[in-house]
Design goal:
The chain has ten helices and three strands. It has 224 residues and is mainly α. The chain folds into two domains: 181 residues, no CATH class; 41 residues, no CATH class. Strands 1-2-3 form a three-stranded antiparallel beta sheet, with no helix packed on it.
């Protein structure tokens, strides 16, 4: 169905720009009338359609990124993760092992998704200005700038970016759970309890971590 609609609109390109303006008007109308949820649902329609119709291309980009770029990103992310976890929790680096690799993986995935988004955004902007310039000389590129996909590209970009941003918040939420990967129930930091694990902070202190959701961190004095 969508393919037929897209084909029709691309054959009648003069309809795409008014359709885009009307789409903006509809969203603004619902926002001004405080129907924020409806406005949000409508706003994400182009992004949803793009992801559904281009998922093979997106998966191909992600696979190439995993094969070619993940190793490099993971290397730098691991350096950042070790220093970041040590600074935030005050834990000496020698007590951080598995948590660094887990947190580095999350950071690398987040950065990779941002880089994929930037690739699409920058390539779109370059095409936009280049085709806009060439449209003064030939109608071929004017037809490109009036295509349905091109007219709604900015909505897709903003929609994809807004989906990426919450990943940063999720990364922060999962940070405490990463530390648990290096914590043990049996330790010289304290007595053994069913729902408590320990990780040494330095030679004089440890973290006592209660395994709840979210985990609860307490500092205990424990000379090594």
């Amino acid at each position: 169905m969508w393919k037929n609609i897209s084909t029709y609109l691309n054959k009648n390109r003069f309809l795409n720009t008014p359709l885009c303006i009307f789409f903006c008007f509809i969203i603004l109308y619902f926002i001004f009338n405080q129907y924020y949820f409806i406005a949000e649902v409508i706003f994400y329609i182009p992004t949803t359609i793009y992801i559904v119709t281009h998922y093979k291309r997106l998966l191909s980009r992600i696979k190439k990124w995993i094969l070619l770029g993940f190793g490099v990103l993971f290397f730098f992310s691991r350096i950042y993760a070790e220093k970041s976890l040590s600074y935030i929790y005050g834990i000496h680096p020698e007590y951080l092992n598995y948590s660094v690799s887990i947190y580095a993986t999350l950071v690398a995935l987040y950065l990779g998704i941002i880089l994929i988004f930037l690739y699409y955004f920058v390539s779109y902007e370059i095409k936009s200005y280049w085709w806009g310039f060439l449209s003064f000389f030939t109608s071929k590129y004017q037809r490109n700038t009036q295509s349905l996909e091109f007219c709604f590209a900015r909505f897709v970009m903003i929609g994809m970016f807004s989906l990426i941003m919450p990943l940063s918040y999720a990364e922060d939420l999962l940070r405490d759970y990463c530390i648990i990967a290096d914590a043990y129930p049996v330790s010289d930091c304290g007595e053994k309890y069913k729902d408590v694990v320990y990780i040494r902070k330095n030679n004089a202190q440890c973290y006592s971590i209660k395994l709840t959701i979210p985990p609860v961190f307490n500092i205990v004095e424990a000379e090594k």
